Amino acid sequence: MGRAPCCDKANVKRGPWSPEEDSKLKAYIEQHGTGGNWITLPQKVGLKRCGKSCRLRWLNYLRPNIKHGEFTDEEDNIICTLYMSIGSRWSIIAAQLPGRTDNDIKNYWNTRLKKKLLLCNKQRKDHRPRTGSYINHNKLEMMKEHENFFATHQTINNTYSWPSQQILFSTLIAPQNHDLAESSSANSHNFQHSTTDQVYFSQDQLCQISSTNQLASMNLVNGNTCNSSVMISNGYYPSNGVVINNGLQEYNNYNSVGLDHDALNSTHSQQVDKSVLEMVNSSTISTTSQDQSTSWEELSPLVNYPPSVFETVSPYYVFEEQRYMGLLKQ
DNA sequence: AAAATCAGCAACCGCAGTGAA
DNA sequence: TTTCACTGCGGTTGCTGATTT
């Protein structure tokens, strides 16, 4: 026995919305709100539509401040970076692009952006000499960059900002009272960020990300309270490299350094988008009904990560996540 | 000029999560 | 604790206009 239908399919109109239906729905919601119940809304409005259909129409088309039309380069960048980080969680991605809907972004990704990236990468490949796997090559470069980064920034009280066009996404679990934090200099887990062009997730979005990705969240590490923050920023730098370096050391002992490859496999694997995992695991992603396939190798170099972003920011936290999740020995 | 194919996008479907009873 | 109604989400479908053959 299947699930009961949400409405009487035989008596509801389907297909494209007419301008009359649009204006009825819009006028009603603007005057009365949704009343928190989409199922009964069509009746109140006088529409022969399913409640879900009304909700969708309102959210994707009728509500105020919806932005249609071309996506900017900055929006492209955010979409790509977030997709690589959290997969096809379109609603979360949409939350970072005011005026855009998840449906819009999903369509844009599936129909245009993915192709644009592939084309772009193909052109790059055509003009790039290759030495072995690009991923390995990339890893080596990232490791070098990492070493350079800390060589430069650990010894001096520095401020470092990534180039302004680079969008960084990262999830941080910052212990307030952790043994490592205590054993090293103060504020070693604090990350500073530049003051311009920052976009922050709301707490709700953060919780959603935390729960869906099964990241260690609020009160986890050794029973101590943690702060979580998720940030996209055009400028971002650690204020102190010491603990991060320690974390990296442990991380290196446990995992090889890579483009979040291991982190994805070991910590996020249960919830990270299946296609992303497939990309990571087999370098091949099959995309729904369209018989195109997109490899991780093809897409990942196109995302603008700051130099060694995962090495400089994530490893310690990944390490903590793994420990919390029981994936690492205590 | 007509048919076939493609691309973009609005809308639908069904599953999972949530909260109230 | 269980059940059920509802919401939100991601995947998929199918329509329509544009482009190609």
Automatic annotation (TrEMBL):
SUPFAM superfamilies: Homeodomain-like. This is Transcription factor. Residues 9-62, 63-117 form the HTH myb-type domain. It comes from the Eukaryota. Residues 9-62, 63-113 form the Myb-like domain. CDD domains: SANT. SMART domains: SANT. It comes from Solanum tuberosum. InterPro entries: Homeodomain-like_sf (IPR009057), Myb_dom (IPR017930), SANT/Myb (IPR001005). Coiled coil: none annotated. It is found in: Nucleus. Keywords: DNA-binding, Nucleus, Repeat, Transcription, Transcription regulation.
